[in-house]
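Quick one, T. Sequence first:
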Amino acid sequence: MRKIVSGVYFEEAYPGVTLGAVALPKGVVMIDAPLRPGDGRAWQKTIREIGRGSNRFLVNLDPHPDRTLGVRIMDSTVLAHEATAEVYNQRPAIFKAQVVESGAAWEMCTGLSGIRWLPPDIVFTDRASLHLEGTEVIAEYHPGPEAGASWLILPEKKVAFIGDAVLVKQPPFLANADLDAWTETLDLLLSKEYKEYKLVSGRGGLVGEKEIRNVRRFIKNVDRQLERLSKRRASPQATDKMVETLLATIESPAKYRNFYSQRLQYGLYHYYARHYYSSSSK
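Structure tokens:
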């Protein structure tokens, strides 16, 4: 676990997403949860060492299984955006680890079937401001990467956990994205408002202007290419030809190239089918 500023930490040791924790005198605020039950118990032990009180909140930054499968074991009050809660309503009560090939981290883990989802206890629309033991904690909606995509902001400490708004050395998840909204979200991160903030990616830890601009450039490139396919009235299968050239623009580890190729293939296909094909095929 790495300290960002006094009382604020992030953890990248577990499969899934980058976790966060804000220590309070009588408890802790957690950002997302480990995927595997054993990792969840280990993270709980770490959490108890930094926040010894009984007040425990967990904020889910979006409904992606990589950050929500392990929520139940964390034994806390859960806060999330209303769109995240709606995704829970559409899921079966119990997770079944069927082959999806979406390039998500959970697909590389075993023993996850049979986990019961835990929907959020508290939901918000645009912004929720919690005043916990003298510390202001803000959960704020920032659309683009996923339904209900949100940030956890600590204005006094100038720290923001930004979820999948920015990913490091890996392609983004596109299937449920809104590329126009995502671009606006990235522009906000590049603005003066967040110039002094320490920004924590949900998949990559601390990030700066370089990483933000890399993702913005990638998103705009995807948008342009999909627009061209739409003008040709191409089918969703045509997005397969985009994968290799797009992946070449990301400096990802060689051992994950096939996995990330699969992520892009899945995301491009579903994004194009959802946003373009139903209208262009008429």
